[in-house]
User: Which sequence fits this backbone?
């Protein structure tokens, strides 16, 4: 089983703080995605990274794919209450299995 | 004009009953999926269909039977419901899983 471990599991911070979430695996993925899920809703895709070492920025969010395409990080600058949610990484398998394996999740709470 | 829609949103039923969850996507995607999210928010793939053909069946009990009448629909029928089936079930679709999924808003199934 190709597992994706996320850390930390829970994070409670105040508005304006910075944070980083990590997603680690021993497997190589053809791409890695980050999703945010809010209560009562399905996960929503934030970004896809494909190339080893790739860095993508989405306003205050910075995503990085590890050089070996086994791990990724999500950095949020100056967190806001609207960033609160469950963050999930997901790895796309190489080969013929057309599926994503999801990470264990990081629950972020940003308070005023 | 919801992209992936699931019905019902909530389902409360007694042990031993049979129930169905419906999913429809209007994105023109070729592949659809069913995922189960447990109480710890871990998302695990159950089934995947590509153009009405089953391509992934991840050791799900025979009581679960997916049906895809056309590539825009993927329904999930569950026989003889058990307490352990209580979870949130998500339908998703993609054109290429390496670029991400679009999820429905989920069906919360509670077996009592």
Assistant:
């Amino acid at each position: 089983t190709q597992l994706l471990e996320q850390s930390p599991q829970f994070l409670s911070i105040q508005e304006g703080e910075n944070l980083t979430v990590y997603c680690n695996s021993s497997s190589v993925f053809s791409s890695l995605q980050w999703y945010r899920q809010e209560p009562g809703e399905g996960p929503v895709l934030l970004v896809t990274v494909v190339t080893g070492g790739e860095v993508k920025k989405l306003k205050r969010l910075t995503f990085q794919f590890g050089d070996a395409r086994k791990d990724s990080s999500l950095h949020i600058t100056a967190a806001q209450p609207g960033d609160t949610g469950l963050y999930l990484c997901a790895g796309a398998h190489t080969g013929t299995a057309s599926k994503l394996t999801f990470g264990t999740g990081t629950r972020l709470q940003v308070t005023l | 004009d919801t992209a992936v829609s699931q019905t019902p949103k909530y389902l409360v039923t007694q042990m031993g009953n049979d129930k169905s969850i419906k999913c429809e996507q209007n994105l023109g995607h070729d592949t659809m999926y069913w995922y189960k999210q447990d109480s710890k928010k871990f998302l695990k793939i159950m089934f995947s269909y590509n153009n009405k053909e089953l391509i992934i069946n991840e050791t799900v009990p025979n009581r679960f039977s997916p049906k895809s009448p056309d590539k825009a629909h993927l329904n999930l029928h569950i026989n003889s419901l058990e307490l352990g089936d209580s979870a949130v079930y998500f339908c998703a679709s993609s054109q290429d899983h390496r670029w991400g999924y679009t999820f429905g808003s989920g069906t919360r199934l509670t077996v009592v």
